[in-house]
Design goal:
- The chain is of the alpha/beta class.
- The strands form 2 sheets. The chain has a 7-stranded parallel β-sheet, with helices on both faces. A two-stranded parallel ribbon has the order 7-8.
- Helix 5 links the parallel strand 5 and strand 6.
- Helix 1 packs parallel to helix 2 and helix 3 packs parallel to helix 4.
- The two termini are 13 Å apart.
Length: 271
Amino acid sequence: MGKATVNRNGLLAGKVAVVTGASRGIGEAVALRYAMEGARVVVSARTVEEGQHLLPGSISATVKRIRDAGGEALAVRADISREEDRMGLIDAAEAAFGPVDILVNNAAVTFYAPVVDFVEKKFRLMMEVQVWAPYQLSQRVLPAMVQKRSGWILNVSSHAAIHPEKTLGRKGGSVYGMCKAALERFTTGLAVEHYDDNIGVNVISPGLVATPGAVHHNLITEQTKHRVTPVEHMAEVCLRLVHGDARQLTGRIDYADQVMKEFSLTAAELI
């Protein structure tokens, strides 16, 4: 396999993409893959420089990888739980590159605890980041998409949105599952609302991905390693769901392995 490169005339040539939670893991991989196809990528997270978080990765590092490979990118620090940061993110993207063509709502914050013990502060923060933020960011970018009659919104969900079996499932995940279920229902509703505007709105669930966070929380074990989805697969799937005929590719709740198979995708090496 040849060295990964940026193709300025690729599938996303001339498009402006905003990816939240792009300092590491899935968000970073998606930003890199979009840049490889010619998108001008705005990467957002709270971690601007290495060392500001206990996990490796930063939006400055993501942007450097893109620029070093010949792509265009901008790092914008944003705490997605704060409305002023959310609005500032889109303002910065538009000021640098123009109206947003692709929005990827990937940022998340997650706490696990039984409902009886779940404190209001953590509940509100999870709902703010995983439901209200994608909703409000979508509201912000949609007018320009409607005007151009073109655009894509991709929301990152989880298998936790699926109703669990009574005796199975991870205990303490009720609030997390509720947030992701709400995000999925918002996605399908928004897809219907903007079908005639040629705007594609989809959900992708990654499964278990070997991100720094997953490793840190010991989610990858001898018992689970056979279920791991390579981050490159997620990046490829997230690319496939933001180009093509939006009317034929909208309102979908997809899982990474299924999309790879459906479209016979081969994951590209990342820059």
